[in-house]
Specification:
Elements lengths: L7 H13 L3 H11 L2 H10 L3 H12 L4 H7 L13 E5 L2 H14 L7 E5 L4 H5 L2 H12 L3 E5 L8
Length: about 160
């Protein structure tokens, strides 16, 4: 390590934590298993988000398709490329689900491939199933990259 960011005590504690979960490979395996769509859907359903996810899937299935958009607008390309779009401001499962509903109702909008959620990682957001439901909609249903920015700040008087 170029800069010593952690004390020896910190490093030993991190190593012990890694080993208590079976090591890095086991941790990665467990994370991958929990990213499975059916697993996420089941777990979010147990937290009360099942109906929301069912409706969200119906909305996503009715989204405008890129090929239809290209044909309708007579778009021609000379060279294949990648266009990246991004949407910011997703505030958890309820706002994400409502956005999906509104996009489905519009019928012409194309959905971005990256989402940035600006929500504080509170215990309620993480453990209530809200984050899980948001990840299920973003990553599993839409195939979008999802990033949550943790809000850290100093409270103002």
């Amino acid at each position: 390590m170029h800069f010593k960011l952690f004390s020896d005590k910190d490093l030993k504690a991190m190593d012990a934590l890694l080993e208590s979960y079976g090591g890095p490979a086991e941790i990665e395996k467990q994370i991958k298993a929990r990213q499975d769509f059916e697993t996420r859907k089941r777990m979010a359903g147990e937290k009360g988000f099942g109906e929301m996810l069912e409706k969200a899937q119906e909305h996503v299935d009715s989204f405008a398709k890129l090929a239809d958009f290209v044909d309708k607008n007579n778009i021609k390309t000379t060279k294949a490329g990648v266009a990246t779009t991004q949407v910011s401001g997703f505030q958890g499962a309820y706002v994400t689900a409502d956005c999906l509903r509104r996009i489905a109702e519009n019928g012409e909008l194309l959905f971005p491939r990256e989402m940035i959620s600006v929500v504080a990682l509170t215990e309620n957001y993480v453990y209530s199933g809200d984050l899980l439901a948001t990840l299920t909609m973003a990553e599993n249903m839409l195939g979008a990259k999802f990033c949550n920015t943790n809000l850290l700040s100093t409270p103002l008087p």
